[in-house]
Amino acid sequence: MDCWICGKPADSGEHMLKASDLRATFGNVSQNRQLYLHSDLARNIRKRTIKDDGFKSKARLCGHCNSTLTQPYDRAWEQLSAALRSRAPLRVGQLLKLNKVFKSPSARMLDVHLYFVKHFGCRIAEFGLSIDIVGFSKALLGRTAHPEVFLAIGPSLHPKIGKKIAGWSEIEARVLPDGRCAYAQYFYHLPTLTVLIMYALPGQRRKGLAQAWHPDKQSRLLRIAKLS
Questions:
Q1: Residue 59, phi then psi, degrees to nearest 5
Q2: Residue pair 136/121 in contact by the 8 Å Cβ criterion
Q3: DSSP designation for 228
Q4: Helix ranges restricted to H, the chain
Q5: How far is Cα 185 from Cα 208, in angstroms, rounded to an integer?
Q6: pLDDT in tens, 76-90
């Protein structure tokens, strides 16, 4: 199998829930402190390490793309995720001053965007969605924004007192008669926040897009969105 980003032989898997988010949510995972993974296929699958393939996409990457190339993107989301979690509970309409999180907000928020471009690209590659993956690859390789990928960050959609739940949702998509995907979205869930990741062709009018963030906005403020 080849890396969907660069085309070289692939030997690495991308975490679909970032390892740092797993650690921050559940602490050290081990034989004596296991996690339980649920999916549409099975429930209560025991996991003894966050390195388990169950947390990774089946779409493969080469080691270079999954580390050296995309490490700045991973680190940017790790930093923003920690900042958002430290401000829990998040409130709809709340403004996060990005210069309090990053020294270079525009550049680092572009990297956050590219983290989710990689995340979405892995899902496209794994499930064969009718979305042109070349644009995702080019954005990652060139460190440039994908014009059709948007994010919205809001409070957790599934707050449960006493329970820590994290994961990612299935993809909802609208396909045009010609077979192209016009719009697709899914959620990235953490106990105190949710990220809505959206792909939209020009001209789409969707509820989520009204609150979406994109690097083109060049704003030093991030508004917490209402996702429900």
A1: -75, 130
A2: yes
A3: -
A4: 19-26, 63-64, 71-86, 105-127, 134-142
A5: 9
A6: 999 999 999 999 999
Please answer whether residues 214 and 113 qualify as being in contact, where contact means their C-beta atoms are separated by less than 8 angstroms: yes
* Single pTM value for the model: 0.93
Q: Is the pLDDT of residue 40 over 80?
A: no
pLDDT at 201 over 70: yes
Q: Where are the domains of the chain?
A: 62-222
At 11, list the tokens.
């030997």
Considering only the C-alpha atoms of the chain, give the largest distance between any 2 of them, rounded to a whole number of Å. 52
Instruction: Read off the pLDDT of each residue in 55-61 and give the average, rounded to a whole number.
Output: 91
Cα–Cα distance, 218 to 198 (Å, whole number):
19
CA distance 56 to 82: 21
- Tokens standing for 214? 């994109």
**pLDDT by residue (tens digit) across 147-172?**
999 999 999 987 765 577 788 999 99
3-state secondary structure of 118: helix
Name the percent of the chain lying above pLDDT 70. 89
Distance CA 165, CA 37 (A): 10
Using alpha carbons, select from 8, 135, 151 the residue that is nearest to residue 68. Answer: 8
Ramachandran angles phi, psi of 215, nearest 5°: -55, -25
117 to 11, 20, 131, 180, 198: CA distances (angstroms): 20, 18, 12, 18, 10
